[in-house]
Amino acid sequence: MALHFEKAEFASRLARLTEKMKEEKLDALLLFAQESMYWLTGYDTFGYCFFQTLVVKSDGTMALLTRSADLRQARHTSILEDIHIWVDRVNADPTLDLKNLLVEMDLLGARIGIEYDTHGMTGRISRLLDAQLTTFGQISDASYLVSRLRLVKSPTEVAYVERAAVLADDALDAAIRLTKPGADEADILAAMQGAIFSGGGDYPANEFIIGSGADALLCRYKAGRRKLDASDQLTLEWAGVYAHYHAAMMRTVIIGEPMQRHRELYNACRETIEAIETVLKPGHSFGDVFDMHARIMDERGLARHRLNACGYSLGARFSPSWMEHQMFHVGNPQPIEPNMSLFVHMIIADSDTGTAMTLGQTYLTTTDAPRALSRHPLDFIGL
Q: Which of 80, 86, 50 shows the shortest CA–CA distance to 68?
């Protein structure tokens, strides 16, 4: 079996989940988020692009409903034993198969929580599911129940995050070696991803971000490559990935002589991220982190150029995004606890002058000050 955790750890996670389910008065939970299934059982697949769900009862009983293509995947990568297959056919409605499975599991009339807020739950599936279950039992939105349990990492998870962080550093080293006037973004991107694969890492849950010139102000991937000019700016956002655990980083690299505006924006990023380190610890909330970000940026006159979030929790994630639900934005009451892996990013896009500057790295929280997981300092990078 291709398991990344000891069975005792899976048992501990299931016990924590069922305890929480009892607190929430849930008889069963329908998991549609692949990261929830992976965390709970080890099940590793991209088959969530089709209908599948893991049924978890409050007594710890689990049953997976999936397609035939994932039968062996589930057997090989997870601790699951009870696996059911719905059959691909014209006008198939796997939610009917699910309802029949729930009857077999004695859940008629039960209180059932559902993970709605996930990429494994399309609008069509949601409508079909509600049509089948609205009169079957008492259904409720339990999208964040497992997500919150996953926030605090176990020692094994921390080790995977640390390994991912090493791979992220290796990717930055590979990028810097190639970055110079005339360098092709395609070669830089290939070197970064290649460093992670060569180090035993995995595909990221979303594309690496690379953009130079005017594209350096973007904070999403887009198709198309260009070669660097003698004076240029190159924004990179990427993640080292190991056993699906992510450690993200972000930098804007300046090629040639930096403009004064580059220096000004870098100083704002550096000052803000160092100030955030003073509140990225127990006794503070995710909202406190954002408030620190907004206060410093706004005092420097950068309110129009900053974003409305400055980072998020990281962990084991699947496509299309490595971002967890818990983000640093205004009013988020989520407390910071030890052993959270949190990505803090400063992103400034000054469209008035066409100037970009970013700075970001992943931290592991402790009982006091956070620990940066990168071996690279937060220094200005000019080549």
A: 86
Strand partners, 283: none
Give the per-residue pLDDT at 116. Answer: 98
The tokens describing 213, both together, are 């010139």
Return all residues near 131 (Cβ < 8 A) that are at least 6 apart. 95
Asked if residue 190 and residue 128 are part of one domain, the reply reads: no
Count the helices and strands in the chain (H runs, E runs). 10, 13
Using only the alpha carbons of the chain, give its radius of gyration: 22
CA distance 20 to 149: 9
Average pLDDT of the segment spanning 122-129: 96
pTM: 0.96
Examine the pLDDT at 250 and tell me if it is beyond 80.
yes
Strands 28-31 and 111-114: parallel
126 occurs within a structural domain: yes
Question: 233 and 139 share a domain?
Answer: no
Query: CB of 240 within 8 A of CB of 197?
Result: no
CA atoms within 13 A on the CB side of 275: 18
CA distance 333 to 269: 24
Q: Is 26 helix (H, G, I), strand (E, B) or coil?
A: coil
